[in-house]
Specification:
The protein has 487 residues and is α+β, with helices and mostly antiparallel strands. The chain has helices at 3-14, 44-58, 74-80, 82-104, 159-170, 226-230, 278-285, 290-321, 331-351, 356-368, 370-390, 397-411, 415-424, 428-446; strands at 25-30, 35-42, 128-135, 149-154, 175-178, 188-197, 200-211, 215-218, 221-224, 238-244, 258-272, 449-454, 462-464. Strands 5, 6, 7, 10 and 11 form a 5-stranded antiparallel β-sheet that branches. Strands 1-2-3 form a 3-stranded antiparallel β-sheet. Helix 9 (331-351) packs across helix 14 (428-446). The protein is elongated.
Length: 487
């Protein structure tokens, strides 16, 4: 064992017990609602105490030439292992100081402290001083959350509703046949998309299987009136439309600018839905008959309604609770948290049985307005998190199991595979936040006053392309599997 290993092991043993409180001198400068600049000074007496304890615990294991282990004079041990012990003591003082500062000043960090431990020196004389920036949860009084007035979506699904949703689900299982005539709403087209900024070609891509709907979205822009633009167009036709690149686009140079988007129609195809034969029903969901399929579709509609109820309730609850949340959130914090909000929204959609196409459309909307939606969601998170702490709400192992089982059920994958995907992508913490936030909202809704309003059945109006008009990298959608008709 090396001298350094011996010193570190022994010093760690010496600091294993909870140390006495440090007599710290702390100065906290408030830079914004979430940003603090903190200066900490550790007095000489505490440094000497840590050093003395470290050397004391090193003595029995110290190996010094000319002496049996543990028999070397203390002064010789101090000199021989000074550098290693100093590094260990410095690390212990930094960690203990940070923990004590957070506890005594009731700080709730939401990021790691921004400082380099290697730049801090343990002085031979005097105090050890270090400073750092850190982001913390803002300080606020929890607003009144009881007795809120909430509009609740309600609907009794009719046979016509089930017909429409069945057609929508079966569309992903139908077959596409080439069509020589003009395109119309509902057709599928292959497009070559060329984006120009003046005379410069920014991107050029071919996208297959785009459904003609009212709106076509990309990660950084959208084409409104897409159905009217392509109505009556034939293979070989070109249409050009100006599109504004979103403020959150990966290509910073084109943010907020208009580009010319040329759509060259390469092919038109008509969708033909599959026949509901016995073999087909058994293959897509092991259904005995069409009635069993329709029963599953009805349950799918009810799950979607529940999702919309939860989303609308969340929006109303958080709108009431965040009225006074006028905190300025640091741009870097919003940038880092944008991915968390993106992942949270996608997980909610997955557990509620939405298709890949619907998730892509929603993801594109988030990508185009990420800073605004992230700021709103982060304020909501701070308030719901504080409520959860006050009411002792947490996520249990059973909660995780239920969430993962529901996602697996909707995606048609095994529970083990879904859990592995979430863990691999680092989404378990996002799942925990999702569970706690939902539980907090459920608690709020227990005391709410409801007014029922009709829920309008959703008709797909948007198709989405998982690409950017202006190019550049953008968040990928967490892996999902296309749902079968059984979902």
């Amino acid at each position: 064992m090396s001298k350094q290993d011996e010193a570190v092991d022994a010093a760690e043993e010496g600091t294993a017990e909870a140390p006495k409180k440090l007599d710290l001198e702390v100065k906290i400068d408030r830079k914004s609602a979430c940003e603090r600049h903190i200066t900490v000074s550790v007095p000489r007496a505490d440094i000497d105490r840590y050093l003395s304890d470290a050397v004391k615990n090193l003595m029995p294991k110290a190996s010094v030439p000319g002496f049996r282990m543990g028999r070397a004079p203390r002064k010789l041990v101090e000199v021989r292992f000074r550098s290693d012990v100093n590094d260990q003591v410095k690390g212990s003082l930094l960690m203990d100081s940070l923990a004590q500062v957070y506890e005594e000043h009731e700080l709730s960090p939401i990021s790691e402290p921004d400082f380099d431990p290697l730049s801090v020196e343990l002085p031979d004389d005097g105090a050890m001083t270090f400073e750092f920036d850190i982001e913390v949860r803002p300080e606020f009084d929890l607003p009144n959350w009881k007795g809120l007035n909430i509009e609740r979506l309600v609907r009794e699904f009719s046979e016509a509703d089930v017909d429409a949703q069945t057609r929508n689900l079966l569309s992903s299982l139908g077959h596409l046949d080439p069509h020589d005539g003009p395109a119309s709403a509902g057709d599928f087209v292959t497009l070559k998309v060329t984006v120009r900024n003046g005379d410069e070609v920014v991107t050029e891509q071919t996208h297959e299987g785009i459904c003609i709907r009212k709106k076509l979205t990309f990660k950084d822009g959208r084409i409104d009136g897409f159905d009217k633009l392509l109505d009556g167009a034939k293979a070989g036709d070109k249409k050009t439309v100006d599109v504004e690149i979103g403020a959150e686009a990966a290509n910073e140079a084109l943010r907020g600018k208009k580009v010319a988007v040329e759509l060259e129609l390469l092919e038109v195809k008509k969708l033909h839905l599959p026949e509901l034969t016995g073999d087909f029903l058994r293959n897509v969901g092991d259904f005995e008959n069409e009635a069993e399929l329709r029963d599953t579709v009805r349950k799918s509609l009810e799950r979607r309604l529940k999702y919309r109820q939860q989303q609308q309730a969340r929006q109303q609850v958080t709108a009431s609770l965040t009225v006074s949340a006028d905190w300025d959130l640091p741009p870097e914090l919003l940038k880092r948290q944008a991915r968390r909000e993106f992942d949270r929204a996608v997980l909610e959609l997955r557990r509620s049985g939405f298709s890949d196409a619907e998730i892509r459309a929603h993801a594109n909307e988030i990508s185009q307005n990420s800073r605004e939606s992230t700021a709103r969601s982060l304020k909501e998170h701070f308030i719901l998190e504080k409520l959860a702490e006050q009411e002792k709400i947490d996520a249990s192992p059973d909660d995780y199991d239920d969430e993962i089982a529901l996602i697996a059920e909707q995606s048609g994958e095994s529970v083990r595979r879904v859990r592995a995907q979430l863990e691999k992508r680092g989404l378990m913490d996002t799942l925990r936040n999702q569970i706690i936030e939902r539980k907090s909202i459920d608690l709020i809704l227990q005391s709410a006053v409801f007014k029922d309003v009709p829920y309008e059945l959703e008709i797909p109006q948007v198709d989405a392309v998982d690409a950017s008009l202006a190019g550049g990298d953008a968040p990928e959608i967490p892996e999902v599997s296309a749902p079968s008709a059984a979902q």
